[in-house]
Each structure stands twice: as structure tokens, then as C-alpha cells.
Specification:
The structure holds two protein chains of two kinds. Chain A is α/β, with parallel strands linked by helices. Chain A contains eight helices and 14 strands. In chain A, β1, α1 and β2 form a beta-alpha-beta unit. In chain A, α2 runs parallel beside α3, α6 crosses α7 and α6 crosses α8. The mean pLDDT of chain A is 88. A five-stranded mixed sheet of chain B has the order 6-8-9-11-10. The chains are: A alpha/beta, B alpha+beta. At the A-B interface, α1, α8 and β13 of A face α8, α9, β5, α10 and α12 of B.
Chain lengths: 231, 528
């Protein structure tokens, strides 16, 4: 990201009114905003403007936004936030697995949008620096080197599978990790059909780490898409 | 037309070739005499043996053309003529030597007999072949006429037309209803009138899939013959035919023809049936495709402007310099209404989706706790400052449901609780597994004013609201979609007032047999 000048955002969205308020919201935060109406234009702008953030609509008139994600990911780790009006959750999973950082379902609020943008940028910053050995969220403290977890100062015992699941979420702190990805990374590629494993172990983690597992503040569910560890 | 030529072949022939046997014998004698008149004067020129050959030729011809008896008569005349020719009448004595002519007589008789028999059997075979050929042709014509038929009525029409042409019979096709009872055909022009007894016989033929009525083993006294239309998959109906007296299906080949006729009609009916089934399926698939693309388009076209509305109104509330008091209120109201509108649209779209036939639920084994957590997070803003309490045991079993849709149910219930209770109300979410009933119960309770008594069930109807003239916005679709979703999962929904005051909405979902965890993980979780 440019430190001297204001950061650059690229909005790829065919709907002018949505472009307008997303632009206003980002400009209010000090962004310099470029807009593209089509997938083709978006691909060109993503290459020439070297944006620090891409806000991408999945349903573009000339193609599927997922193509842009795949294309951009071949050369850049720039944060991509996807906007989706579709009812089918599998589109979001496809976009996230293709490399999108986050998604928002239309209609979405400006507060939500800006929160996602900030979280994505924070991650971007961290990824550049030394990986932190100690992560804190809420009352929970995780020592990645010693593989120790404590809640409110008390040590918490996690089984190896639970710890593995937590570490995948920690590696993607603040970012949605799709259920298929969690299954792949924790249980291996042969367990793609066992979605309930993830849910059961997320339940265990919530029981051990959350104050009220039915109203979690950190281990959040993105219904039918995946999970997010909210710092 | 071609089949007219053949049709009379199946009816027993009334005119026989042997109607006047005496005349034929006389003709045989005549031919022999003619041979004698022509042949005997040649005797001085030819040898007697050669003249005898002429007689033999005459006998053979008579045998071929006229049959056995005329051939025998011709042989006798020829014998006499030969004897007379060899021994003129004035010659004395008729010695033993003349007996050698008896050999010639015997040969002529034998040749005549054998020839006549061979000829007769050949003629019979030829007649049979013509009959078979005509039957085959009639069936072929019938099959070909049935080929292009695409409607049941066309099959009926063709069958009855050919029954009339081929068998000279009038009749009707009887089809069964859904319960397998044959229905009386609608009376129309040329339709025979079937009595109750006739229908009973037809029903018997249908139930037993074998022929009944005139000329068969069952109820032969009936004036109709009832042929079951047996197709490969099942019996499709009964063909009732009133055959003319002389062509009752007693003869095996006549019976065979009738059976083949019925089988052709049955196969045509079955084919037409499957054509209809295929067309229906195609129409259904086309409808499904259309509905899906319509929903996707609607979803996009409605959500896009709504996203603009929500975002733009929110931009207003956030704009700098900040809006003044009343302007700010207006902007906030605009934002809230836009949000409400988008919830409504989401409900409408879900309703459309769930009520279309063959809706595909994304069923997964889910944690109730997770569902409650995400629903609370999704509609937190609609609950304001109300206190929310969750009560659920830690050992709830996994339940199989579509998480997105169930989240919509919980959100609607929570949103209702937010709309109809005072801002300081308490809302509770409780879950428990009733293993005896095999149901998981999920309840949303509040301590608000409760439901209007006696209208608890009516609330779940579309466009019904608790209080008709309510200042609270809504069209009464929320609970209807809740019930549609829960019932699509094989569950139940009800609403009632709590004794302590307040309303309770209960969702019951069937408990299934949750899938197992891998063995290593079970050991792991016991260790904790």
C-alpha cells in the first residue's frame, strides 16, 4: 500500500447506484476510488491501476466475477471483497475458494462494508510482517509456538483435531474460511462429504472458548458458507 | 381399399366347389368319350399302347380339374373304349387274354386318384396361404394405421374402424379408472349400448386378463366378445366387440387373429400413455427451469435496487457535515424501511422457492446451537435493547436441515418478537430433544402481550396478521413462510400463549440417525 498518497480502491460493479454509495463510503475513509462497469474493464483496471483493494460484484453483465478473482490471484495478493446478490451459497464458496478475502450479501450496510475493508487491510499488513507467535482474541490467548491455549488466564485443553481447526482459523484471522476448505485442511481431502465434522468441532471450540456458545462473539458461523474467527 | 379384398377370407365360405357332383362325373365321362372319338380312329396309325396314353392324359386332366369321382368315371369309359377298339363287337368271345386290359384300368384309376388327391391338398394349402396372407395383411394395415396415433382417442378410433373392416364387428373400448374399475364409454353415434351385465363381463375380462363373452369359455351366452388389452406393463382396458353370428371366435385361427388385434391395440395404448407421460415430464421440467430462472432474475432485479436504497439511505445518515435533527430522523427512517423491505423481499423469494414443487433442500447435519447463534447475529438489530436468553442442553443431537432456510425461520420468529413486544421485553430461545416423540423442539418465547386467543393457528396462513388494523408494518407472510419451511423438513409448527403471559412459537424437527464420527475423533473427544 502507498503510505505517502491515499490508497487506491477498484470497484467492479455494473449497478451505478451501488457504485455510487460504495464509492462515497470509501472516499469518506480516504480512498482514491476507480470504477469499472464490466468484467473486461475490471481486468484491465486491476492490471493498470494496481489497486490496494478490489470490491467486486459477482454477477457482471459480461461474465462471472470469479474469473476476475482467479486472474488477479495469479499475480497479486490484493484484498478482494465480493458482493453477491445470489441466493445460492455455493457461488460464495466458489468465490472464496478462488481467493476472495470476504463477501457481502446484497443488500448490505455501509458499516459492514467498511468493517470488512478494514479487516482485510489489517490482514494484509500482518501478512507482510513477521508471523505473530501470540494471538489474542477476547479472553482467549493462543501461543502458537508452545501450542498452548488459555482463556481468562486459565489453560484450556484442546484435542489435536480441535487445535488444528483453531490454527487454520487463526491463520485466516478475521477472514471467512469455507467449510470445504476447513475439511480439506484439518481432515484431509477424502472427507469432503463429512461437513458435520467441522460443525461438531466448531461446537467443541465454542464450548471451550466462548462465554456463551449460543451467542458467540469470535467463532462466528457464516451460514452455509463457512466460519470466521473474529478477533 | 386393399384390405377389402382379404376381409371375406376369414368368414367360412358358403359356396363349395363340389355343389354339382353328377355334372362333374358327366363331364369326366364326356372328356373320355371325346378322347375315344379323337384317339380311336388313329388306331391303325398308332399302336394301341400309345392310344392308351392319350386316355391316361385325359384321366389326369379330369382328376386335376374335376376331382376323384369324375376321374374314376373317365377311367372306366377309357377302359371300355380300349377293349372295344381292340376287339370289335362282332369278334367272338371275350377271352381271358383280354384281362391284360384290366392292368391298364388299374393304372388309370390309381393315377386319377393320386392326381386328384394331390391337387386337392395343393388347393387347400393355397387357400390357407391366401387366408393367412390376408390376416397378416389386415394386422399389418392395422399396426401401420396405429403407428402415427399420438392420442388415446385416435387409438380408439382406429381400433374400432379396423374392427369393423376386418371382423365386420361394432364395438367399444373400455378404459379403467384409477381404481381399476372399467368406465362406461360416453354414449355417442354408433356406440353400442352396454348393459350392467355386459360391464360385469368386461370387468371380469379386465381383472383376469383373459377373453370373455361370445365364443369363449367364459359367459359364452353374451352377445359381445370381451378382449383384454394386455400390454407389456399392464392391462390397459377391454375391447368389446359384437361379432356377426358366423364368425364367432371358435376357430383357433379366428381367435388368434382377435388376440393379435387386441394386443396391437394394447401396445398402441401403452405407447400413447408413455408419450403422454414423457410430454408431461418435459413440461414439468421446462416449468421448473423457467421458475428457477425467474426466481434468479427476480432475486437479482429486486435485490439490486434494494441494495442501492439501503446503501444510499445509510450514506445519508453518515454524510458529513451531519444532518440536522429532523433530517437525520428522516434518513434513519428511510434506511430502516429499506432494510425492512429487503427482509420482506427475502421472505417472498424464499416463499416462492419453497412452494415450487420439487424444491431442493440443502440438508446437512447441523448443530442447533450454531443455528441459534447465526440467527441471533443476523437479526440482532431488529431486537433493539431486548434481553435475549438462550436455554439449551449441551448434548443436543445433530439435526438434519437446510441451515439457510432454518435461519430464515428463526429470524422471522425473532423479528416478530421484536415487532410485537415492548422494547424492554425479554426474549428466550430454548431447545430440547424429545426422544420419545423423535422430535427436536425449538422455542422462541417472549413476555410480551401474547397472541390474540383463538387465532393461534390462523396466524400461519398467508396474509393473516394477529390484529387486522395494526400500526406495525408487515403483510403477514413471515409465519406462513416459517411453516412452509418447517413442513418441507417434515416438521411441525405451532403457536400458543404461555401461562405466565407472552407468546411461544414452537418449531419441531424430526430427529434422525446422525452420522458417526471417525473412530480416532471419538477417542479424542472422550479424552477431554
Amino acid at each position: 500500500m502507498n503510505i505517502e498518497t491515499s490508497p487506491i480502491a477498484l470497484i467492479v460493479e455494473d449497478e451505478p447506484q451501488i457504485r455510487r454509495f460504495v464509492r462515497m463510503a470509501l472516499e469518506g475513509e480516504g480512498w482514491q476510488v476507480h470504477q469499472s462497469e464490466t468484467l473486461k474493464r475490471g481486468l484491465i483496471d486491476a492490471g493498470t491501476r494496481t489497486p490496494d483493494l478490489i470490491v467486486l460484484d459477482l454477477g457482471l453483465p459480461d461474465g462471472d466475477g470469479v474469473e476476475l478473482i482467479r486472474e488477479v490471484r495469479t499475480w497479486s495478493p490484493v484484498p478482494i471483497i465480493v458482493l453477491s446478490a445470489r441466493i445460492d451459497e455455493s457461488d460464495k464458496i466458489t468465490a472464496l475458494d478462488a481467493g476472495a478475502d470476504d463477501y457481502l450479501t446484497k443488500p448490505f450496510g455501509i458499516g459492514e462494508l467498511l468493517a470488512r475493508v478494514r479487516a482485510a487491510l489489517r490482514r494484509q499488513h500482518k501478512a507482510g510482517g513477521e508471523p505473530s507467535a501470540r494471538i489474542v482474541f477476547g479472553k482467549v490467548e493462543v501461543d502458537l509456538q508452545m501450542r498452548r491455549v488459555a482463556r481468562a488466564g486459565e489453560p484450556v485443553h484442546l484435542t489435536p483435531t480441535e487445535y488444528k481447526l483453531l490454527s487454520v482459523l487463526l491463520a485466516n484471522l478475521g477472514r471467512v474460511v469455507t467449510a470445504p476448505q476447513l475439511l480439506r485442511e484439518v481432515w484431509g481431502p477424502s472427507n469432503a462429504d463429512n461437513g458435520h465434522y467441522v460443525r461438531i468441532y466448531m461446537g467443541h471450540l465454542r464450548q471451550k472458548l466462548e462465554d456463551d456458545p449460543t451467542q458467540p462473539r469470535h467463532l462466528l458461523t457464516e451460514t452455509a458458507v463457512g466460519y470466521r474467527l473474529q478477533p | 381399399m386393399a384390405y377389402h379384398a382379404g376381409m371375406s377370407m376369414f368368414r367360412p365360405s358358403q359356396a363349395s366347389n363340389g355343389a354339382r357332383p353328377l355334372a362333374k362325373v358327366a363331364a369326366g365321362v364326356g372328356i373320355s368319350l371325346l378322347t375315344a372319338v379323337v384317339g380311336l380312329p388313329l388306331l391303325p396309325l398308332l399302336d394301341l399302347v400309345n392310344v392308351a396314353m392319350l386316355f391316361l392324359l385325359a384321366v389326369v386332366l379330369v382328376a386335376i380339374r374335376l376331382g376323384r369321382a369324375p376321374a374314376a368315371a373317365a377311367s372306366l369309359v377309357a377302359f371300355c373304349a380300349l377293349v372295344l377298339a381292340a376287339h370289335p363287337a362282332d369278334a367272338p368271345g371275350f377271352g381271358l387274354g383280354e384281362f391284360r386290359y384290366a392292368v391298364a384300368l388299374a393304372v388309370m384309376l390309381a393315377v386319377g386318384w393320386i392326381t386328384a388327391r394331390l391337387t386337392a391338398s395343393l388347393r387347400e394349402q393355397a387357400a390357407g396361404a391366401v387366408g393367412r396372407e390376408a390376416r397378416t395383411r389386415a394386422l399389418y394395415e392395422f399396426a401401420r394405421a396405429l403407428q402415427p396415433a399420438l392420442l388415446t382417442d385416435q387409438v380408439f378410433d382406429i381400433t374400432l374402424r379396423f374392427a369393423e373392416r376386418t371382423f365386420d364387428a361394432r364395438g367399444a373400448v373400455l378404459l379403467p379408472d384409477a381404481a381399476g374399475r372399467l368406465a362406461l364409454p360416453a354414449p355417442g353415434a354408433g356406440m353400442p349400448v352396454l348393459s350392467v351385465l355386459d360391464m360385469a363381463a368386461a370387468q371380469w375380462a379386465y381383472d383376469h386378463a383373459s377373453a370373455a363373452g361370445a365364443g369363449t369359455g367364459t359367459l359364452p351366452g353374451n352377445q359381445y366378445v370381451y378382449l383384454p388389452l394386455v400390454a407389456p406393463m399392464r392391462t390397459r382396458g377391454v375391447l368389446a366387440l359384437r361379432l356377426p353370428e358366423q364368425s364367432l371366435p371358435a376357430a383357433p385361427e379366428q381367435r388368434g387373429l382377435l388376440d393379435a388385434f387386441a394386443a396391437l391395440a394394447a401396445i398402441a395404448l401403452e405407447r400413447v400413455h408413455y408419450v403422454e407421460v414423457a410430454q408431461e415430464t418435459e413440461v414439468k421440467m421446462e416449468g421448473e427451469r423457467l421458475r428457477n430462472s425467474l426466481l434468479a432474475a427476480l432475486s437479482h432485479d429486486l435485490r439490486t435496487p434494494l441494495t442501492g436504497l439501503v446503501g444510499l439511505s445509510e450514506s445519508l445518515t453518515l454524510s458529513r457535515p451531519q444532518l440536522e435533527g429532523s433530517q437525520m430522523e428522516l434518513a434513519a427512517a428511510l434506511r430502516d424501511e429499506a432494510r425492512r423491505m429487503s427482509t420482506l423481499v427475502a421472505n417472498l423469494l424464499d416463499m416462492a422457492r419453497i412452494q415450487s414443487d420439487g424444491v431442493k433442500l440443502n440438508l446437512q447435519w447441523q448443530l442447533i446451537e450454531e443455528l441459534v447463534g447465526s440467527a441471533l447475529r443476523a437479526c440482532r438489530w431488529q431486537l433493539g435493547a431486548r434481553r435475549i436468553e438462550t436455554r439449551m442442553p449441551a448434548d443436543l443431537p445433530l439435526v438434519r436441515f437446510d441451515a439457510t432456510l432454518l435461519e430464515r425461520v428463526l429470524c422471522n420468529l425473532l423479528e416478530n418478537a421484536g415487532k410485537y413486544t415492548p422494547p424492554a421485553a425479554r426474549i428466550a430461545l430454548a431447545a430440547d430433544a424429545d426422544r420419545d416423540a423423535g422430535m427436536l423442539r425449538l422455542r422462541v418465547l417472549d413476555d410480551g402481550p401474547g397472541l390474540p386467543p383463538g387465532r393461534e393457528d390462523a396466524l400461519f396462513e398467508k396474509f393473516v396478521r394477529g390484529r387486522q388494523e395494526s400500526p406495525i408494518a408487515g403483510v403477514g407472510l413471515g409465519l406462513a413462510i416459517c411453516r412452509a419451511i418447517v413442513e418441507a423438513h417434515g416438521g411441525r409448527m405451532r403457536a400458543f400463549n404461555l401461562e405466565a403471559g407472552g407468546a411461544c412459537f414452537e418449531v419441531a424437527l424430526p430427529l434422525g440417525q446422525p452420522p458417526a464420527m471417525p473412530a480416532a475423533d471419538i477417542a479424542e473427544s472422550q479424552e477431554t
